[in-house]
Amino acid sequence: MLRGYFIIFLFYYLASCKSPNEQYYLKDDQLFHQVSIRDKLGQEEGGLQELFYDLMVTEFVLPDSILVSQIDKIILHKQKFILFDKNLSLLLVFDPNGYFIGKIGELGLGPGQYQGIKDFSVWEDTLTIFSTADLRLFQYSLSDLEFLGSYKIEFFGNSMIQLSDNEFMFYINHNPSDFVKDKNVLYYNISTGETKTFFPYDHSKSNAIIPFSGFISKQGNEVYFSLPFDDKVYVFDQEKLDFFLKYKTDNVNDFVFANRGDFQKFLFGGLFQDPANGVSVLGNVFLKNDNYLVFSYYLNGRLYYGIYSLVSNGFKTFSKGFENDISFKLVGDPMILNTENELIFISNSETIEYFRKQGEMEESFFGKMFKDIDSVNSLYLLKMKIKPF
């Protein structure tokens, strides 16, 4: 009899120990895509010219009154580019030719003003700002950039995407509140108040915001999510209000799986950077179209970017540290992957001028293109097409 009780106990114990990720299953008619990249991790086969062609540059001239630190996000919506500087809580709007249209809102405590911007989204003619400093969602018209109103919220978070005019998804990123508790993703309907949470975690160990690994990303009409230090990318089914496994990489080893949940040990204890541990994890960039995945990843603490062909299953890597071409040092993360297989990056006049003074511009692929540009307060949108492989 005692043996029978033990078996029952063991069954319930094992069931309770199921990984939080395992609750997000496959659709009956859909298999996940295995993304095999392990054998080519960190292998850079060439510079910018070997990976891209048809390079185009659009200069965005800033007013003298506006200074930018760095651009963290770009949304192209109805012939308008909206650029986000997270450090300075700036949202700038340009037309496709680079002409400045205006700025969204102001820092402050007055009507239509905010104390900071964590993220933003766009739906039809409305731009929504996610402000954890104010615990509010602020909304503005994209037609005239005027303030429309705001909604009170009761949670913190790292980033936001929009599903419809009143439905939002928030990546909490290990930042608990009474409203969300110990879940990492929140679905929130601001009209009905309906909520649903996903991806539980142990806050006693996973107790820090991780900015460089893990993401929520909207690509076309689909929403993708990946936890920090994971090998899985999930897609959100808006009808069922649930996540399903979509992509699985093979770069994360057993050492990472065994240690990633304890942030103090894994990150601050030096395990993440030690080459002996062979740590490779997905980063915070994830872009997708019908032909390619473009994502960031880390290998032994160093940042790389990967291009994976959904057609051929081929894989290419580039990084800012490529010795024979400094071009990637001039740009930030890839921001947009469009339907024409074009990647969009952003650079600025300050970075261009720095490398020009170092005498390195002439040796780069961008050298000739920027040789005659002498703007002192500009941003540069660089569009380049991926070479098929």
How would you portray this structure in words?
This protein is mainly β and 389 residues long. The chain has a single domain, classed as TolB, C-terminal domain (Neuraminidase). It is built from 6 helices and 27 strands. It has helices at residues 2-16, 48-51, 254-259, 263-266, 349-357, 367-370, and strands at 33-35, 52-61, 73-77, 80-85, 90-94, 100-103, 106-107, 113-114, 119-123, 126-131, 136-141, 147-152, 159-162, 167-171, 183-189, 195-200, 215-219, 222-226, 232-237, 242-249, 280-288, 292-299, 302-309, 315-318, 336-337, 342-348, 378-386. The protein has a 5-stranded mixed beta sheet with strand order 1-20-19-18-17, with no helix packed on it. The longest helix is centred in the first third of the chain and has 15 residues, at 2-16. Pfam families: DUF5128. This is 6-bladed beta-propeller protein. InterPro entries: Quino_amine_DH_bsu.
